Amino acid sequence: MSLEKASSGSILEQFVLLSSGARGAAAVSLIKQALEAPNLYVFGELLDCSSIKQLGENSEHRPYVDLLRLFAYGTCSDYIANRNVLPEISPQMVKKLRHLSIVSLAAKCKQIPYSLLLKELDMPNVRELEDLIIEAIYAGLIKARMDQNEQKLEVYYAMGRDVEMSKLPELLGILEQWTGKCEESLSDIQAQLLDAQQKKSAHMKLKNQTDTEIINIKKTLALASGAERAGIRPSTETMDTDVKSAKKPAKMKGLRGSASKVFKGSNS
């Protein structure tokens, strides 16, 4: 299998298997190959191999084990600070260490100024920096966006690196804090869910009551309409007769009044 096409895990597994029979200069060569191998960015398992540990006991070869450890846990600034006691690294190693340094910065800060990246990666200009960032994104080491106007890198995700044993208590503390926050969030969600269920229940009860009232009103209106259609209404002729009979007494009263005035006039 080609190292360029293999996954990080399978590449590391190959080096771990090869390390079992490597001693002395062969183990040093294996370390160099691992540090230059494309797509290999974790080295913890290789450091734990017995042959690599034995190599560290030899003062002549110990610097290479220290270099492997630096690639597992360190950054470019760590290499620069200890350059005088570490082996010289190839251009491929330099690029890989810069990629790993970006990952370490991305794990600590979600918005990284270009100025900080240039300093930490020991790079001369922004153009080369952006090319390096693009390579890290395509390699799947980070998910990020370059903001050229603001001259910063906005990070959304960073791969996990090897963790030193001495850092495990700190990591466990962070995980415990995260677990506590998750439990608090879960309690809040459960309380909101209970409140939503209660409101829904009250809403459904009100809706049912309203629906019942609407049905009752419709029934009442239907009964009233049916009773009105079943009632007897007076005919038109009867209404005309009633009107005429109501007007007759008024006219007779008027005549009586006029006649009495006439009689009174004649008597006088």
TrEMBL record:
Official protein name in the record: COPS7B
GO annotation, biological process: COP9 signalosome assembly
Keyword Cytoplasm: yes
Chain residue ranges for the region called Disordered: 228-268
Family according to the record: Belongs to the CSN7/EIF3M family. CSN7 subfamily.
A GO CC term assigned to this protein in UniProt: COP9 signalosome
Localization terms from the record: Cytoplasm; Nucleus
Domain called PCI: residue spans: 1-160
Coiled-coil regions, chain positions: none
Keywords: Cytoplasm, Nucleus, Signalosome
